[in-house]
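Lab notebook, page 48
Experiment: co-folding of the full assembly
Goal: obtain a model of how the components sit together before planning crosslinking
Operator: M.T.
Materials (sequences as entered):
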Amino acid sequence: MKRVALWAPLAIFALVFVVVISGLVKPGETVVRSAMVGKPVPDFALPAMVPGKPGLSAATFRQGQPRLLNVFASWCVPCIAEAPQLLRLKAAGVPIDAIAVRDTGTAIAGFLARNGDPYARIGSDSASRVQMALGSSGVPETFVVDGRGIVVKQIIGDIRPEQVDEIVQAVRAAR
Amino acid sequence: MRGRVLTALLLVAAPATAQPVTPPAPYANVQLADPAKEASAKALMETLRCLVCQGQSIADSDADMAADMRALVRERIDKGEAPASIRAWLVSRYGDYVTYDPPLSALTWPLWLAPIALLLAGIWVARSSFRRRAR
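Observation: model returned without errors.
Model output:
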């Protein structure tokens, strides 16, 4: 009994040491995943902000066709990096709608002129409310929504070229 | 000459900022008029995690996302919503990670039971050592 008690502090220290080192060697994921995956798109209606392009409401996602919902902003640098991939997705026949977080119509029009325009609709989320309702914690993020309006997948950060095929497949599978 | 051109270019260049182009929502940095409501909003904000600066609460953070979350909390408190229901709404969006006051679940029970277990172990150690001394 006494012998065991003698070794106990060292054993506890070793345990703490292993926990700390494993945290240093392999840090945990720093992204926050949305808890809305698997749930219906929350009800929302956002006004239009660019001439000739309608605003966006939750009803758009319940029309029987899977779509992408892209959360972006003109002031977001990785959104520029992601733009070519969104154009490729559009070319592949994937419908893309967007909410623009805390942005202005002129800034968005400039962004689309510079980086291309893959969007069918853009809604203005002036106080990040819809972004929060979707469980998105930054820009850019992209949600795959199936034809019944259920969120099936969340892509955090800019879409990389190698992710395009996977997303096309996810959209086709969401039919 | 070259230096002058460079300086001129630097002056003309627009800084590449990753900041929203719109001002923060009302109530992001403005307190509620009712002190009781503001106190309950502040207490809630101190227990909600800023999602982009993950070591801070939204009450402490200067991040734009935190400002938007503060505005959301204050507006909902102002409308009479209970803090617990606002927390539940955020947890349904971001998971338990968003709250610094995690609910008791299969994953978090050690967090809640460890202090009690350690206290009991301490009492046991103290008791046996006091007994030895008394003898």
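Interpretation: Chain B touches chain A at residues 16-22, 25, 51-52, 54, 64-65, 68-69, 71-72, 90-95, 97-98 (CB under 8 Å).
Next step: discuss with group before ordering constructs.
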